[in-house]
Amino acid sequence: MTRLRIAVQSKGRLSEGGMDLLKRCGLRFAYGRDKLHQSAENMPVDLMLVRDDDIPNFVASGACDYGIVGENVLKEEQLAGRRAKELEVALRLGFATCTLKLAAPKGGEITSIQDLAGKAIATSYPAITDAYLRERGVVSEIVEMHGSVEVAPRLNIAAAICDLVSSGATLEANGLGAFETVLNSEAVMIRPAQNRDPAKDEIASILMRRAQGVIASAQTKYIMMNAPVDRLEAIKALLPGAEAPTVAQIAGRDDVVALHAVCRERVFWETLEALEAEGARAILVLPIEKMLA
Description:
This protein is α+β, with helices and mostly antiparallel strands. It has 3 domains: about 5-95 and about 185-215, 3-Layer(aba) Sandwich (D-Maltodextrin-Binding Protein, domain 2), CATH 3.40.190.10; about 100-185, Periplasmic binding protein-like II (D-Maltodextrin-Binding Protein, domain 2), CATH 3.40.190.10; about 220-285, Alpha-Beta Plaits, CATH 3.30.70.120. Helices cover about 30% and strands about 30% of the residues. Helix 3 (about 70-80) crosses helix 4. It is flat.
């Protein structure tokens, strides 16, 4: 029987997000003693649990058919001239977002990318960093590190760093300030660009359609409210990303209607307060677990 093999990070944020996504796509996994392999009970899908930086090679070599990996890892492997050049992004997954930034000591002489000419830069992403700088006419010494990159300037290993940033707290704790964004990254589903098995692609297409529904529902909310008829158009205009809200009569009332809408953009408290200011009442915001467009 044909089974789709997907490489997933064995531990960490990408592992948790990837497993959660697959489970929300309806996959049920049988857990065994083998920590490197899991099989779905209700779909022909097997998981290989490996290191994140090994995932592009697993997919490019054919050991796995698809993989869930950080875009930063994929691009580093592709720019480094490895077999990952043969891979493509099949689907952006919308979680594990982060940015790769250039940073230097606050109050120092480095405040722009041009100031990096001839300087040493510490990074875990040497290929991405070097390519980004050279595209802008800057030649620097790239110092490859595999951890604690942020301490490099303090230890005089490098004048600046290029590192992944989520909250910026680590940079702040080490007296560093970011001054340039090199890459915006998120989790992506990858696959070989060519020579794929049609039967496995058919399984993957079902899974990715479900994943698209899960991703869409994460940002989408179902809003219900009572709205005064004379303010209906103004209230509709406030609904973020809503398409053709449902309007229904309320028994015994001709001045108020029930309004239901699927909002495809984030709903903030400010949105609810604006709706209330226009006369909307009994406003409910509900999560959507699954949806197919």
